[in-house]
Each structure stands twice: as structure tokens, then as C-alpha cells.
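Section 3.1: Structural characterization of target chains.
Under the original work plan, the team committed to producing a structural model for every single-chain target entering the pipeline before any wet-lab resources were allocated. The record below documents one such target. The sequence was received from the expression subgroup and is listed exactly as submitted; it comprises 447 residues.
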Amino acid sequence: MDEIASLVGGKVVGDGSVTVTAPAVIDGREADPGGLFVAFAGEHTDGHDYALQAAEAGAVAVLGSRATALPTVVVDDAQAALQRLATHVVALLRDDLTVIAVTGSQGKTSTKDMIEAVLSTAAPTVATSGSFNNELGVPLTMLRADATTRFLVLEMGARHVGDIAELTGLVAPDVAVVTNVGRAHLGEFGSREAIAVAKSEIVRGLASGGTAVLHADDPRVLAMAELTDGPVLSFGTAEQASVRVHDLALDRLGRPTFTLHHAETETEAAVALPFIGAHWGLNAAAAAAAGLAAGVPLERAATALSTASISKWRMELRSLACGATLIDDSYNANPESTRAGLDALASVDAERRIAVLGEMLELGEASRDAHLEIGTYAATRADLVVAIGEAAALIAVGAGAKAVSLPDNAAAIDWLRDHLSFGDVVLVKGSRGARLDQVAAALVQQL
């Protein structure tokens, strides 16, 4: 504890001889034996009050802004102290550690998961859990690395220009992956050009000699090659892509098979993914390109991708007791990812294809047109469109005669319980704030 206090400029209250031997957490229930609980005083909840709960789970010390029942390093700013500690720990490991950072408007979590699958076949790998990709999630992931870790995969998200620059300031990546520039958080950024600037910070933040891995099919992303003097690998379907997806086909459940071609070595590898939708081919190509940048051969990457697993609520395929099939893509939504989900739904053999869609948040002034546009598109990809919530009612307007508009999740669950039947395939998708995971969970439990 004394050493931690010295590193972060804090003062120990309690036994300074206590040794932290496990990662840091901000949820005391998730503490491991020997762990550090980082406490924040929020507007409604004060984490310091949960120090004993953290102790019951195994935490031995606290980093916070006031003393607790456990030995505590007291600092003025717990977030800054956490980041300082993470930067120090990773710096100690840097000689034997390759850092891969991933960002993009959509697909970054799935791509991160695929990169983890590829790299873990070669050496011990630590990666971001779920989508914990902000100013707290990145340093907490960094603190999970230890002397045995060889690859550290960090997902980096942004809501404002400058957010990713702050994250790369904690650790400069050796490999930076940009999946795309879409309309997610358009309301926060104001324009796609501003989103591109924000995402480009991951390339600007590369370590000296680091490799940029860029989407060859997205002009805004490919233009980021001009921001680095280091190597650039591209991925996509374009002929000039360093790692190119071709010969993509879908089986009756919409699961893709395709070939990845590495232009530099003129090698190819076949991939069969257990996920639904053609868009997974691009995520796989990005992961393979990141693997190549980190020294993992294409064939090895292809094998790993074919058995990869993805964070929950992302195109999860579930069989329902009533004989229908659920595609649970309820984690989040924006216009581009919703189109991809609808395309995946359309690719599945079914008696009826039903799209259950919630609001797409944070689109700003573009929200009305985006919801109408998605409704119109959904009507071309599904037999029936169920729009949930007042804001999503515009989806129903766009979908026209194929649409049903329902006020909330409870009404949607009741409606689906009465109308789903054998052979149907239902896609559930909406922004996180819409909590459509509740709808998906109810279908699994009740149908």
C-alpha cells in the first residue's frame, strides 16, 4: 500500500504494509482475493460505503477519496490515481507486452473479442471485458495484465473529440484498429466528420513504429493512413485490402463462410464463423489483420476465428421452446449496426422474419430521419416489424403496413408471446437505454 500511495501521490490510512496481489475493481462484489477496490463518491451512491462488501469478496485495500474500513490510499482524484497506477504497471511490463487498441462506431467489441481469440492462441492475452472501454474500463483492464501477459487488447470508446487521445495517453498502442466511422453518438459529436476525427486519435496515439489496421471499404477510415509514418494494414472486401474477404456465402441460419487473402504473402485461409450475418466477415478480417501485425500467421488466425466466442447480447442465436428462433442483438444500436442486423435476419431461412426494434439513441437532429429510414429498410428485410417505445414509433411509420407499434417492453413481451409461432425467426435490437435485453430474456424464459 505504501508503494501505491507513493506512485499516485496519496496517503495511506490504515495498515500500509498490506500487499495488493490481484486486479483492481470498481464493483466490490467482483473483487478477487488480494484485490484493490477503487471507490468513487457519486451523486446517488458512495462507493466508499461498500468497502466491507468488497472485503467479503476478497479485497484487501481501497483506493478512494476518504478513509474506509479497509486500509485506504486516500487521494484527491480517484480516477486520476487509478489511471496513474495503470500506466505505471503497464510501463513495467512493456518490454514483453504488445498492446492492441480497437475503436470504431460499431463492431469494435465483437472485433476486440475476435482479436482476443486470435492472439490467445499464441500467448497469454488480457482483453477488455464486454464494452468496458472508457476512462475507467481501460485502466482497469490494464491492471489485469501481469508478468505473464504478452498481449493486451484494449477497446477504446469515445463520446467527445479528445476522449481516445486521453486513453492512448495512458498507453500508446503498438497496433491500432479502426473498424468504421458511422453515426453512433452522432448527437454528441454533431457530424460524421467529427466522429472521424475522434476515431483517428487512436492512430495518432500509436507508439513509435506502431501499425495502423484500417477498414479499406470506409474512405473516412482509410484516410487515417496519412496520420502515421508507421506500417498500415487494411482489411475489407476491396481489391487493395491487405487482408481481403472474398467468396463469402451464408448457410440457412445466416452463418458466413469465406476466404481471407493476405496480399503481402499471397496466402489464403478459409473461415467458417458461428455467428449470424455477412458483416462478421469484416470483423474477422480486422482481427486477422491485427493478428498479422502482432505476429500471428493467417492460417492460425483463421482457425481461432472459427471457434471464437463473442460478448453477450451480440447476435446470439437462441432456440425458443415454441419452435421459434431468437437472434438477440440487444446490446446496442445505431443506423449502421441495425441495418447489418436486419440483413442478418433476412439471410436466415424462416417461416416469418420478425424485427423487434427499439429506439436508436444519441443521434441528435438526425434521429427522426434515421428512425424513418430504418423502418423503411426493415420493411424490405422482415415480414413484420415491431417497434417498441414512443421514439421508435417512427420506425413503424417508416415500415408502413408491415409494422406494429407498442408502447413499452412489457407490451412487446405480451404481444410476442401471443404471436410467435413455430418456424419464426425474431431479431431483437435497440440502443442500450431501451433495455431490449429484457424482451430477449423474457422470450427465452417464457417461450
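The mean pLDDT is 94.
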